[in-house]
Amino acid sequence: MAGAAGQSDHVVFNQVGLAFGHRPVFRDLNLTFPRQKISVVMGESGSGKSTLLRMIGGLQRPDSGEVAVAGESLAGLDEMGLGQVRRRLGMLFQNGALLDSMTVFENIALPLREHTDKSEAEIRQVVHERLGDVGLRDVDDLLPGELSGGMLRRAAFARSIVMAPEILLCDEPFSGLDPPNVSRIEALIVQLNQRLGLTVIVSSHHMASSLRMADQLCLMRQGAAISGTPEGLASSHDSTIADFIGEDGISHLARLQERPPQGGAS
Asked: How far apart, in whole angstroms, are the C-alpha atoms of residue 67 and residue 169?
């Protein structure tokens, strides 16, 4: 069970099974996500990447097995218990999920107003700190529809971390972005991981960014997962893994290994 996992494992899937009707999604899935690391979950469409994130938040229950967050099994928890676990989590949804009728400030302040006793002055301070964390200024009074795609994604990141989570779940954070904004969001994920000490779990189909930022890469296939460092998986003799990463991915990773270390991002 999850208790056998190491203390460095922040999220644990232990023999998890799940099916939607007659379609199996996970078969005895065993997977761990290390604390304060960036893990990227990859796989073909329908392989269960988004479902996996929903299970961490208790939004989808497994048919069998156990999911544990920070050492606490989600099995059998009622909504109040799940609510306590969810306070440890920040979630970035694929579409950003900001409310169009509310300003950026009001969107980010909403969780603080609903779930804390902070004063308006304290809320304003926290919101501006989180906007600073994602590199946004002077956007308080703008509506989501007035932001560019990259700015909108940054605002969604600010809301996902406004409650100071331990774990940040990102569902396809690069979806719909042009290459410059992909690079900006990738750098932002790394900065949030390093600056705030967040455990980050990302579902993605963007190979280049995944290889650059992942401490752990998790490949979903046939209801199970293969995980390891990008370098370890790229050097695997398993033809399925090599085919998934592809020659371009392996070549890209080789170039990254040859590149001298970069200075910390500001």
From this structure: 15
